[in-house]
Design brief:
The structure is a single chain. By secondary structure, this protein is an alpha/beta fold. Helices cover 32% and strands 24% of the residues. The chain folds into two domains: 8-181, Flavin prenyltransferase-like (Rossmann fold), CATH 3.40.50.1950; 190-401, Rossmann fold. It is built from 13 helices and 19 strands. An eight-stranded mixed beta sheet has the order 12-11-8-13-16-17-18-19, sandwiched between helices. The chain has a five-stranded parallel beta sheet with strand order 2-1-3-4-5, sandwiched between helices. The chain has a two-stranded antiparallel sheet with strand order 6-7.
Length: 410
């Protein structure tokens, strides 16, 4: 069971049907030993009664910005200073938009701006609202400012539709809150990890891809999480479930992955590029299925951006780890890639020869860094991931303790 003894959690609730889950979350936080105070928007009170939350938390529920019963009618300042963590769950599209634009027209939005505590949001909304470019831009804006966006999950929705937009379950949110105090060599570090293949469409039914299963990247996300980091996993198409406590963002193409990575890399301390990103995409996407006709057909390809190199070239870039799958000359090719891209570390393995590699449960890699290397023999990917993560943590610590203590930690 998670122990949050004495931790002060401020739970904000905005107006969505998922507010009923917030009552369960309050109960579980209380059971874990946390002190919980609840702030509700006016719309939230239409979905769950303040008295319910007051009974579960043991504290008065707040909703008015200018409360004459509080000292100097400045309750938002008191609450903002009290909180160790501010979590808004559910966070509606409206609330996310108002916060992204710096509006402070109610108690909850005002204290979010007034607090220096970590701010996390658990989105909950209709799938089309979540996918709308305005919502996606607002989420990116908040992420770039250092906010945490947890979810949403995918599944059945109250409106009768199916898709992304469900608020994460209370036990998952509890896990993520506890992560703020999880001890480990990467505690306090924001990690961004890519995994899986990308799919580059040719026409509505065909695409270019590769044999990556995503198993290595997912195992690394779990291993880095175990070491205390806050992990965002940007994943191409796989059949894998995201590790507990890890935020997953699903993409299909290399350009989609690039957009998601670059929108977050500037606020991360660690970037691990385990995805097998397609090097090329079709120059022109056919609007209809290409029919079988001529015996020989030529497909024009254009090169995709090099996401890993772009991240490594950022000012104040995160500690950057690449992967190299090679068929020959492993050390020469891997070291050439590490140096040319300016990587802190690279994990390389031979594919197409013997066990391990793409779509296998086991793998063997060699890690290279400036002035050193280490061979990790064939083993299951979760065990391998833990060894890689431990080496990353060791070199991450050596790099940033040798520099300014203010170097990026996420």
């Amino acid at each position: 069971m998670h122990r949050l003894e004495g931790r002060r959690i401020l739970l904000g609730i905005s107006g969505g049907i998922a507010a009923y889950k917030s009552a369960i979350l309050v109960r579980e936080l209380h059971r874990a030993g946390a002190q919980v105070r609840v702030v509700m928007t006016r719309a939230a009170r239409a979905f769950v009664a303040p008295l319910t939350l007051q009974t579960l938390s043991g504290n008065v529920v707040h909703s008015e910005l200018l409360d004459p019963t509080r000292e100097a009618a400045m309750g938002h300042i008191e609450l903002a200073r009290w909180a160790d963590v501010v979590l808004v769950a559910p966070a509606t599209a409206d609330f996310i938009a108002r916060l992204a634009h710096g509006l402070a027209d109610d108690l909850l939005s005002t204290l979010c701006l007034a607090s220096s505590a970590p701010l996390a949001m658990a989105p909950a909304m209709n799938r089309e609202m979540w996918r709308h470019p305005a919502t996606q831009q607002n989420v990116r804006t908040l992420s770039l400012r250092g906010g945490y966006v947890w979810g949403p999950a995918e599944g059945d929705q109250a409106c009768g539709e199916f898709g992304p937009g469900r608020m994460l379950e209370p036990d998952e949110l509890l896990e993520r809150i506890a992560g703020f105090w999880r001890q480990g060599p990467l505690s306090g570090v924001r990690a961004l990890i890519t995994a899986g293949p990308t799919r580059e469409p040719i026409d509505p039914v065909r695409y270019i891809s590769n044999r990556s299963s995503g198993k290595m990247g997912y195992a690394l996300a779990a291993a880095v999480r175990e070491l205390g980091a806050t992990v965002t996993l940007i994943s191409g198409p796989t059949s894998l479930m995201p590790p507990a406590g890890v935020e997953r963002i699903e993409v299909n193409t290399a350009l989609e992955m690039r957009e998601q990575v670059l929108s977050r890399a500037a606020v991360c301390g660690l970037f691990v590029a385990a995805a097998a990103v397609s090097d090329y995409r079709a120059e022109q996407l056919a609007g209809h299925k290409i029919k079988k006709g001529v015996s020989r057909w030529q497909l024009a390809l254009v090169r995709n951006p090099d996401i890993l190199a772009e991240v490594a070239a950022l000012p104040n870039h995160p500690f950057t780890v690449g992967f190299a799958a090679e068929t020959h000359d492993l050390e020469r090719n891997a070291e050439g890639k590490r140096r040319s891209k300016g990587l802190d570390m690279i994990a390389a393995n031979l594919v197409g020869k013997g066990p391990g590699g793409f779509d296998a449960d086991d793998n063997a890699v060699t890690l290279y860094w400036e002035g050193g290397k280490k061979d990790l023999s064939l083993r299951d990917k979760p065990s391998l991931a833990r060894e890689i993560a431990a080496l990353i943590a060791e070199h991450y610590d050596a790099k940033y303790t040798a520099q300014d203590p203010g170097s990026p930690s996420g």
